[in-house]
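Hi F.,

I've been meaning to write this up properly since the lab meeting, where we talked about keeping a consistent format for the predictions we share between groups. The idea is simple: the sequence comes first, exactly as it goes in, then the structure tokens exactly as they come out, then a line or two of notes. No screenshots and no reformatting. I'm using this chain as the first example so we have something concrete to point to.
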Amino acid sequence: MRITVVGSGAWGTALACLLKENGHEVTLWSYTQNESDTIAAAGENPLLPEVPIPDSIKLTSDLSLARGSQIVVLATPSYAVRSTAAKLREYLEPETVVVSVTKGIEADTGCTMSQIIEQETGARVAVLSGPSHAEEVGRRIPTGVVAASRDQKVAELVQDTFMCDRFRVYTSPDMIGIELGAALKNVIALCAGCCDGLGLGDNTKALLMTRGLTEMARLGIAMGGRRETFAGLAGVGDLIVTCTSMHSHNRRAGILIGQGMDIQTAMKQVGAVVEGYYATKSAWQLAKKAGIEMPIVNVSYAVLYEGQSIHTVAEQLMMRAKRQEQDDGTWA
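Output, unedited:
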């Protein structure tokens, strides 16, 4: 199968290598020719060191080379998805499937990545998500993800294309639940990093992750997602790996913020896109619009965008009014 991976960050590169290993004809697109040349000269991506890129992967900065691809994998940062999809539109065939592997929510519009792609291209779209650090996929460590689409045949096509003995792919019809889980867990991971930076311990992080999952599911269900999705790989699975691993850009940025570093400086020091920063604003906006209570998202927004102290908001969370754990809890 002919496949173009649009976006040569660590994740796009890892997937390009996986797809090539699966026997497909793969092109890896970079935003600039300099990026493409750097990868070609080194034989690996500086963002994904010690993962050799096969010579048979075509490296380019010419988006027109996506023409004729049966699958296009869109792996740009979330802020670039709309502009890239708009440029990509003229090169897509009527039957081309676009697979979004970007985790985020568009600022102000509240659109998921698949919604943006559908608006800009009119293509058939699937999403691929789950606990899948690029560093580990690149090193061929066993990984499990979910391919979601409203069209079962599209989801199964993606499953067949990506799945191998080290990369297990499940299918789901719940695109909105999987995309919201993918975006919102970055918010919680950023907060989990702050807990680590503050030295608050394992109890605190477990509390944050568990109640964070509740908030993720609460908004996801309100937006049309399925509750069970948040108990799966794209929900709790991705939440666990992102909140606990040092591969996580969001956790690493949170650690620096918790240690007292300025937010913008922390994100620059991480050296990669911290999607949780952008997703916090979008989640805060969506929660307000839907009338959903999301205390962790609210305090994250207060720290990241309003300059409030982490110590102050942590105390606010702990001293909220008493309540039952489950939203629908009833006594027998």
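Notes:
Strands lie at 2-6, 25-29, 58-60, 71-74, 97-100, 124-129, 143-148, 167-172.
Residues 257 and 265 are 9 Å apart (CA to CA).

If this format works for you, I'll send the rest the same way.

G.
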